[in-house]
Amino acid sequence: MEKAYDVINQIVRRNRGNDEIEFNLTFLVTEDCNLRCIYCFEPNKRPKKMSFEVARAAIDKYLDREDGPATVSIDFCGGEPLLEFELIKNIFEYCHSRTWKKKYRMSLGTNGTVLTEDMKEWFLRHPCFQLSLSLDGTKEVHDHNRSNSYDSVIKHIDFFRRYDQTVKMTISPFTIPRLAESIVHIHEVGLKPEANVVFEDIWGSPEDKVKLLRVYARELDKLVTFYVAHPEFSAPKLVGHRIETLCAEQEYGLEEKYCGAGKYMTAIMPDGKEYPCHRFSPLGSSAPTQHIDFDRQIQGPSKCITCGIRRLCHSCLGANHEICDSIDVRTVAHCEFTKLEILASAKLAARRLEPFLQNFKLEGEIDEDTALQVAYVKNFVRSIDWVQENVHLQEAVSA
């Protein structure tokens, strides 16, 4: 009985995320970057960098405000943010120089190529500052996608292992035939992978896309097999979507958005102008705008409104604005990839649960907490069954 309860608890912990809402304050400390990644959505890079005065004004505004979430997540990005390391240090020291009305935490995403020993020493002295790395997998894949920078990154891997952060892996057409190998490689170097396909339609002709989708399904199946054999590793969302939400009792409103742009997120540009996120800025958009109506409902396309897995299909308001000319019309180039990911997630969940469900039996009275957890797992199983009955490769490649 104890073992059964332990398994239930593991399932619940693994699939429940942190639901605390934070306000994300993004500092675009520079628009410059030393790489030219093939999938970059920032086509308008300019040699602009932020001044400390601009950063200080934003800190004063958002850390001393009365309303909004209790915690502000301060994220440094670019371009490549470490090109402005001295500015980042000054912002950090200013934030720590006084007491604010808001709690805050700081993070930075980097391509890892301009990191120096002095930088590493500073970050190690300030462990509250979290770093995450972009790494696209094996040397072959990473070099193809990210300007032949693998060797410049991998020499710092020991340093990045100190941070309990996932590696950001972006999937390109070149990545897909090598996806499983790349994910496993990231585990092998001691990091935790998290990967996503882009919102832009970079998949070639319809025939080319169908071929890639079939390969994607094959690679996802390889990952399912890998994670069944290696339960010690945490699976990325590619095969770890929270499918239990598909059959949850609460209703899913069309206005529900996964992105907090314009409501729980603000991007500060080097000139001090504020945008809902940096994808709405001149750096990331051909039609930049500083104001969006976050509370409007998703209007389309119609297949998204009626789709049974829409609550698991991430939508970027900035990409919607850029590609569909409206934040309320979803991009669809990633649709079939998401369907295959959800199917793979159901396969992995089913295989992990199978030994437990075959032998599990509750006897006698159980307390309320255990009853809730059992109900959660039963709903999880219903979601697995629903996905396996309704989401198929043929549907994905012909959608």
Protein architecture, described:
It is a single chain. This protein is an alpha/beta fold. 41% of the residues lie in helices and 11% in strands. It contains 14 helices and 8 strands. The protein has helices at residues 2-15, 52-63, 85-95, 117-125, 139-145, 150-154, 157-160, 179-188, 206-229, 302-305, 317-324, 335-359, 368-390, 393-398; strands spanning 23-28, 71-77, 103-110, 129-133, 166-171, 192-197, 265-268, 274-275. The strands form 2 sheets. The protein has a 6-stranded mixed β-sheet with strand order 4-3-2-1-7-8, with helices on one face. Strands 5-6 form a two-stranded parallel sheet. Strand 1 (23-28), helix 2 and strand 2 form a beta-alpha-beta unit. Helix 8 runs parallel beside helix 9. The longest helix is centred in the C-terminal third of the chain and has 25 residues, at 335-359. The protein is globular. It starts with a helix and ends with a helix. The mean pLDDT is 86.
Strand content: 5-15%
Q: Tell me, briefly, the overall form.
A: globular
- Ends: how far apart? 45 Å
Number of contiguous helices = 14
Helix proportion range = 40-55%
Largest sheet: 6 strands, mixed
- Report the C-alpha radius of gyration, rounded: 22 Å
Unreliable parts: none
What pattern of helices and strands is seen along the backbone? HEHEHEHEHHHEHEHEEHHHHH
Oligomerization state of this entry?
Answer: single chain
* Secondary structure tally: strands: 8
Main sheet strand line-up: 4-3-2-1-7-8
Structural class: alpha/beta
**Overall mean pLDDT:** 86
SSE layout and pairings?
Blueprint: H1 2-15, E1 23-28, H2 52-63, E2 71-77, H3 85-95, E3 103-110, H4 117-125, E4 129-133, H5 139-145, H6 150-154, H7 157-160, E5 166-171, H8 179-188, E6 192-197, H9 206-229, E7 265-268, E8 274-275, H10 302-305, H11 317-324, H12 335-359, H13 368-390, H14 393-398
Parallel strand pairs: 1-2, 1-7, 2-3, 3-4, 5-6
Antiparallel strand pairs: 7-8
Helix pairs in contact: 1-13, 2-3, 8-9, 9-12, 12-13
